[in-house]
Amino acid sequence: MPELPEVETTVRGLEKVLLGRELRRVEPRRADLRRAFPAGLGQRLTGARVTRLGRRGKYGLIDTDRGDTMIFHLGMSGKWRIDPEELGPHDHLLIETDEHLVVVLNDPRRFGSVDLVPTTELSDWGPLAELAPEPGEITAGELRERLRGRSASIKSLLLDQRIVAGLGNIYVCEALHRAHINPKRSAGRLSPASLAQLAGAIREVIGEAIKAGGSTLRDYARPDGELGYFSKRFAVYDRESQPCLSCEAPVRRIVQGGRSTFYCPKCQR
DNA sequence: AGATATTCCTGGAGGC
DNA sequence: TGCCTCCAGGAATATC
């Protein structure tokens, strides 16, 4: 289940094998993932040279000298496999470089996506156009601005990519726990002090996760998808009924917007 | 505006 | 052990 830190780790891994390389073969192995692959994806990228890899929110970005950027989203089961021994049924897009290195986008549940957009139009491209600031840099002021007047729960709104880009269910739960904020609180009614704590908690949680991914990556030196979650233990996520790591009260699970929320009823008022 | 449901999809977990 | 059902996840979309 890739969230922002996993995407960041993946991009850093891909950078090692793709940056500066010419793409000799770009071959979709089915017509779509979450949505159809861009028309002419293979032709448009074959022969292009990769000039930059980046990330925005949970989207990975691969710029080329053809003026197009390939945008990938890993959904919940997506991963890039580097130089696989053989192709499997869920390897949906194959790329071969001028060094004859093969990378494949593997995604069993096909919640991911691949798009191709002119690099100059990237910031206007639908999903990126309204994306909020990066969670690693979010400030209390930006949070306040975006949450002002909103009565929905803070948990639900933090999952909205227009409030903070790249947060998923896990890190929202973890950040709220760290900031001692009850996930059911109305977002617009949080005090400036709480918002400051929340902004700090988001930056910390994401920063630590990326750091953990980076250290894992050093061991593997490739985004082979075998990393799973970072070994770092979560304080509340997926720990229903287990003791809160801060106060030992049992962690509670509720459902908000159809998604599980884990929190400590004692630490998070 | 917000809450909830639905859709996409498959593997893993749990029940029997 | 082997079926069966259910659930997880992100994002778009529909409905109340």
Write the layout of secondary structure elements.
Elements lengths: L3 H15 L4 E6 L12 H5 L4 E7 L2 E6 L3 E6 L5 E4 L8 E7 L4 E5 L6 E6 L7 H4 L10 H8 L6 H5 L10 H10 L13 H29 L31 E5 L2 E5 L6
Helix pairs in contact: 1-7, 4-7, 6-7
The chain binds a DNA duplex (16 and 16 nucleotides) through loops.
As a percent range, the share of strand residues is 15-25%
Quick one: biggest sheet? 4 strands, antiparallel
Strand order, largest beta sheet: 1-6-7-5
> Which structural class do you get from the secondary structure elements?
alpha+beta
Low-pLDDT regions: 214-229
Q: Distance between termini?
A: 29 Å
Shape: elongated
Number of strands: 10
Looking at the overall shape, the CATH architecture of the largest domain is Alpha-Beta Barrel
Radius of gyration: 20 Å
Name of the level-1 CATH class of the largest domain: Alpha Beta
* CATH homologous superfamily descriptor of the largest domain: MutM-like, N-terminal
Q: Say what the CATH topology of the largest domain is.
A: N-terminal domain of MutM-like DNA repair proteins
Average pLDDT: 88
Order of helices and strands: HEHEEEEEEEHHHHHEE
Number of helices: 7
The helix fraction, in percent, is 25-40%
In short:
The chain is of the alpha+beta class. The protein is built from 7 helices and 10 strands.
Which key terms come to mind for this protein?
2 domains; elongated; alpha+beta; DNA-binding; Helicase, Ruva Protein, domain 3; N-terminal domain of MutM-like DNA repair proteins; 7 helices; single chain
